[in-house]
Amino acid sequence: MYVRRSAAVLAAVTVIGTVTPAFAADPSPSPSVALPSGLYGTTDPTYDGVWRQSLALLAQDTVDVKPAAKAVEWLAGQQCADGGFAPFRADVSKACDAKTPVDTNNTAAAVQALAALDGHDTATGKAVEWLKSVQNKDGGWGYMPGGASDANSTSVVIGALAAVGEKPADVRKAGKSPYDALLKLSLPCGDEDAGAFAFQPDKKGALAANADATAAGVVGVLGQGLVAAAGKAPASTRKCLGGKTPTPADAALNGAVHLARGMSGTGYLKSVLPGAKDQPDYGNTADAVVALSAAGLTQRGREVLVWLEQHYAAWAEQSGPAAYAQLIFAAHAAGIDPRDFGDTDLVKQLNATGPAPQSASAPNASVTASAKPSEDEEKEDGDSPFGVWWYVGIFLVVGIGIGFLLSGRNKGK
């Protein structure tokens, strides 16, 4: 979700030494502004209103729920005249000015939601033109206009471009496309963290692996958005692909394998925030499921969903609509019914965080995939993303594997 990503951005820019936007802090649980009736969530929307609303509406559309009209109207009404979106505008009767903190992430998320809901071509067109106007010369985007390109921002903008039918590869600045920017942030074969994406280079141009950026980067180089479709299963994941100059497809698979390796002993990704040693990063883990599935490692994504099914509740309840949306995106990408997620209905839980939707379809009976691998998939474990080449030159922990993840969906808890 936006707050989690903002925290990751805050940590990254603190290390890199660049300026951090003042509004990148976590929101207060007690709203300091009046909550609009069309808004999802009950926490202060100052820092994440547009983001969480966009994810909520997009998740509802993904599961054939027609959102409340006032919820859609609220999101559309947050747009500035130039096309950009800020995290939250309490008074939309006042025109946006130079002090309005419009940014690429909220704008791109709003585009993806409004494009999915149809009837908003003018709004999404203006937003995409604004995004193009702030594209950097390396082909990517930073969080704020003019900021250095980062993997997360570039990826969410790619999703917005794809949502309106644009070809991201054709959206160029100084001859560079968004894919060029992302590939520059991908750690090449031979590196200890080969396959990972960095958030941004440091002051010396060095790249440091970042799981949040990797999850975003994998989906981005595949030209997909927040709602991603499962990719074709790779023939093998034993070898790092592309050497020093991977193609987007190479970089996506390498990144997915890196994420899988990072979860091989736990089933989840760990938080990198100060004071959160060995604590799960639930949101990033959900994003990783989307990345794994988009890159063709769908079964591995389902295995991670087993852990999320058993542990997500407290996090999602505290984090609100964006968290439920992320889980719905993860289940959708992995082919798991979000209405039967650890014996609960994620769609019902999301709907309960805001105005009642206009309509909701019945559960999709065709979604019956299990998180437990089949016998054939277990036999193919030699080609798994926990394969040999990742451990060469690093280490091999004897006895650590993913067996505890293969226990199925654990009904009747």
From TrEMBL:
Residues 1-24 form the signal peptide. The chain crosses the membrane at residues 388-407. InterPro entries: Prenyltrans, Terpenoid_cyclase/PrenylTrfase. One of its GO terms (molecular function) is catalytic activity. Keywords: Membrane, Repeat, Signal, Transmembrane, Transmembrane helix. It comes from the Bacteria. It holds the Pfam family Prenyltrans. Residues 54-163 form the Prenyltransferase alpha-alpha toroid domain. Residues 352-382 are annotated as: Disordered. The keyword Signal applies. Residues 355-366 have a biased composition (Low complexity). This is Prenyltransferase alpha-alpha toroid domain-containing protein. It comes from Streptomyces caeruleatus. The lineage of its organism: Bacteria, Bacillati, Actinomycetota, Actinomycetes, Kitasatosporales.
